[in-house]
Structures are given as structure tokens and as C-alpha cells.
Amino acid sequence: MGCYKLQISLRGLALLVFKKRGKKKLLEVFAFDQNFGRLKPIFEVSFGPKVSKARNKARGGGLDLLRKETGILHDSSRVNTSQQNGVAKRKNGHLLNTTQVLLFQGNVPKSYWGEAVLTATYMINRILSRVLDNKSPVEILKSFYPHFRTSNGLTPRALTKRELKDAMREEMSTLERNKTWEIVERPKGKNIVDCKWIFTLKYKVDGSLERHKARLVAKWYTQMYGVDYQETFAPVAKMNTVRILLSLATHYNWQLLQYNVKNAFLHGDLDEEIYMNIPPRFEGNKVCKLKKALYGLKQSPRAWFERFTKVMKESRYKQSQGDHTLFIKHSAAGGVTALLVYVNDIIVTRNDEREKHEVKQRLATEFEIKELGKLKYFLSIEVAYSIQGTFISQQKYVIDLLAETGKIGCKPVSTPMDPNHKLGEVKEEPVVDKRMYQRLVGRLIYLAHTRPNIVYSVSVISQFMHDPREPHLQATYRVLHYLKGNPGKGILFKKNNTVALEAYTDADYAGSLVDRRSTTGYCTFLGGNLVTWRSKKQNVVARSSTESKFRVIAQGLCELLWLKIILDDLRIKWDGPMKLYCDNKSAINIAHNPIQHDRTKHIEIDRHFIKEKLEERVVCMSYVPSEHQLVDILTKGLNSSMFHDLVLKLGMEDIYFSA
């Protein structure tokens, strides 16, 4: 780490920070010592007027000598007088807090601490303040000192690092090779979009540093709707589709390959006329007229996906009606190739060896791709293979989460949720950091893509993100304590004798203490492998347990029909109708009964929908005893014995755990 000196100028309006190297002790705020003679010319060059007075917390030392040589008045603050040094202390705390946030949010190594301090200072000086009538400190300084300029020390010093300079050159080379823009004269009356550099570190699956990466991004907030952008929506692959492909690949012994499109957004074609300033550190008097999409532009995801779709359709691939990011091609010999795209990450699975080489060659012709070999790591999901099947987990993600939250050494618990929890809106309890809580719950929501055993707990704690209190935070920490006990647990896809579709549905009637709404839960199996699941509070209050379970039956049926669409597009066949299990006999009887009852008119649409599919023999409903109901783990808190029994029945294992 480095240390720094902080100068607050113009009555605390702006900061001047000077990074110190080779010093063991952090200099006190407002403590001008023997180095002030070297800093004094910098102040005078920046602001113009001569320095006439300097203050520190003690008399004597270098300032007394400086006073004799330059005539500068030396003032010292009185002991225990916060009015004189409180401004500096508060600003120092603000600066350090901002620096820590930059390091944490950007996952930046501590060796860049000094650069982060300077970057935080740069930001603080340019953020609008209500105290300054919605002006930034730099604006105020320029009004007093028209010739004011920031020294080189106030720009992100990370640019001086050789690795990042090389990363910038590589990015610029890619942009120029891709013909992303052409340099033109600055047009009159046109909106000019600004841009900036973003630096990140790319890590390998084992956590080691892979490379430094620089990305030039457009400042989207300088765009104007209707002028330089229109539509912005672009689909991304559903995680449910990922699990379906993994289950099918395991069953049919299809190979799973992974590709990465380098600078994917740069391949998108733009329909709008967009002008952008020349990138920082490559400045000039002209501007860039964009011909291709650029990261940061609001329409970039859409432009990239439209270009990718066009290439796939030209190669005779068809988009799935169930997931538009899934592209499928069938050969005359009966082979199939499926390609799933999530922004710039692509999963390919197939049993057609010829098409494997053709699709690779076509992608390499149109885009700059990197073949990553067999699918092993995809969107923080780790994929492992064995004779038993294909295993997915997020072990590294869990360990990183525990480390970030300071829970790496916490005591494990056996369940993620207290079976007798009474979480509700507790206004009398202390408020917790809202942004921290939302970020933590968001991380857990993403983890639930491979951990259905925490889905109910995450569903409950996510209901309080608008006003989190201490009990809600403790419930969230309990989930982390549970994860500490089995960070490597995940889902094992096995090869079974059938690819039949099954769904289990259930509802916890009036389970919410806040509004007495019921909790919906369902899970679906493809060939005996768990592929989709959900736990969610219902939108309306149910007037009976039968009504609440009837609603979840309709939702479970919709999920089965969606799965059928994906399988039909892949031309996967199975024998017999889809099966739907429910532990409520009244709901099953109503679904089969053609007579309309007064007590079912408020769920009439769901009843007709289910009845129609039953008559078409698309699905058949069966009763399952409550003791065999798998969905209980998605609708309520359970004791340790029942919880672990259901975890095993869902097909969850921990291949990293040694018995």
C-alpha cells in the first residue's frame, strides 16, 4: 500500500491528494511537515495565489524553518478543538470509505490502494453537491481560479501500470481492426457521446490471475432517446435451458463444448448515426463516427444479438420458440446440433461430428472466437464429469462470497432457514445497510441457479429488500452459515432409461405473516434429473388451501408445456403424457370434474386451462402423499432430518466432500 497527503481547499469544498511513496507512517490530515516546501509550488501553480498561511496540529518542525525562509504564517489548531480539524477528519473518512468501496466493488487488488485513493478523489471533486447549489467542487474552484487545472496526480494512476497500458493498446488495436469507427470532423448540432476506459482483472477457475483487461465503453447516460438509440432489449439464455441441455447431453452422451466471442458487442451493426469523442489518452480535435456497436451503448446488446441471429439463420439454424437464444440445426442423417448463447459465451452440444467443424469455421469467419474446449466453467457455474454423470456447482462462487462477507470462518448450521421462523416487517428493529443487504441477497439469488435447497430461504429474505432490518440480515447470514458447511453441493445429472417429463407442485397456504398470501412451489424433472424449480409468494390471497394449490398446479403445468416446446424443437420423443403430482385430492377432483362449482368460479380460467390439457392427454395428474412431496423444501422451513432427506431426493450431491 501507499500513503497520501490530503489538502482541503476553498473551505472544504475540494480535495487535493498527493500520493506518498516510501513512507512508513501515514501523514496526518492537514499536517504540513518538512515536505510542504515541495508541495507549496504545486498549490500555487494550480490555484494562482501565493500560499500565505499553513496549519498543522503542533508547533515546531519543518514549518518553523519554512516560515523563516518564505514568510508564510504558521498556525496550529488547538488541542481538543474539533471545530478546527473536524472538516478534515470527516473528509478523510469520506475519502477512505469511497476508496474501500472502489476496491471491493471492482475486485481490485490491495496493491492498487494508492491509485484507488486518487480515483476516489477525482470522483468526489466532480460529483454535484446540494451544498454547492448542485455544482461540483471543480466548478466552484474554476469560478475563483479560471486557470485552475488538476495535476496529473488526480487522474487514475492505474494508467501508468505497464500491464494496463498494454491492455489499452490491445483494445484499441481490436477496435481499429474491427473498423468500429471512422474519424470525422466534429458535426454541428449533433449529440456527441462520451467514453471512458474501464480496467478489470480476469481470473482463472482456480482463482489465479489470468490477465489484465481494458475495455473502452461509451457513457450511455450521454445518449438521447430517439436521437442516437431506439430499442434496447436483447434476450439472454435462461438458466433453465442450460440445465435442460446438460441433462440431455448426459442422457445421449452428447459432447459439450464452449466458445467465447471476443469483444462480442463490437460485432453488432448500428442503424443509428452516433458520434463519439476520441478515447481518453488518444485525444484529438475530431470525433469518431461509429460504424459498429461499442460497449456501453444502450443498443449494443440488441445489435450484437441481431447480428449473431442473422449469422445463425444463414447457416440454416432455427431459433427455438421456447428460448430465442437457443439455435438448433438438424441434419438429414438425423443428427442434431444445439447452440445456446449468453451474451458472448456460447455452449454447443451435438451428436453431428461434421456440423461441429462447420459451425466452428462459420463462427471463426464472422467473429473473433476463442475455443475453450470441453464445457467446464460457465457464468460462475463449474461443470465436472464422471462415469456417474455430469455435475454442476458453484463452489468457487460460494467461497468467494463467504470471504467477501467475512464468513469464511463462521460456524456451519444444518439448514438455511429456521423451521419456526417468524420473519415479517419489524419496524421496531434496527435498520441495516440497504445497499449491502440488496447486494448480498442478489448474490444468493444467482447462487440458487444450482442450489434449489436455498431457494425458499432466498425467496423469503428477498421480500424485505425495500426496508431490511436486523432480523432479516441475521436470516440472510444463516444462509451463509449453511453454505459454509457444504460449499461444493450441486446437482448431478445422471443417465436414466427415459426422458419423461414430471412435475411436483405444492403451496404453503397463507404462509406469509405479512399479508397471508400463500407460497407457490414447483419443480420439474427431465429423465429423472431436476432441471427447473421455483418458490414464489402468490400474487393474491387464496381463500382456501385448495385454491392456493390449484393456482400452483396451473403454474406447474405451464412449466411442463414450456419444457415440451424445447424438447419438440430438439425433436426429443418420449412415451406417454407428462406427469403432474399434487398432494391435494380436492384440487385433483376439481380439475377432473366437468361441472362448474360456485366455489371455483374465482379460479375458473385456471380450471378450464388444466381441464383442457387433461382432456387432450397432454398431461395426467396423480396424487402423491405428503410424506413424499418433494416441493416442501421450496415452500416452508423444515427440520434438519426432513430437509436433508429432500435434498437427496432432488438429486443434490457434494462430489468434493470426503466421507
Automatic annotation (TrEMBL):
CDD domains named among the record's database cross-references: RNase_HI_RT_Ty1
Top-level taxon in the UniProt lineage: Eukaryota
Gene3D superfamilies for this protein: Ribonuclease H-like superfamily/Ribonuclease H (3.30.420.10)
GO molecular function, one term: nucleic acid binding
UniProt-recorded name of the protein: Reverse transcriptase Ty1/copia-type domain-containing protein
Segments forming domain Reverse transcriptase Ty1/copia-type: 178-417
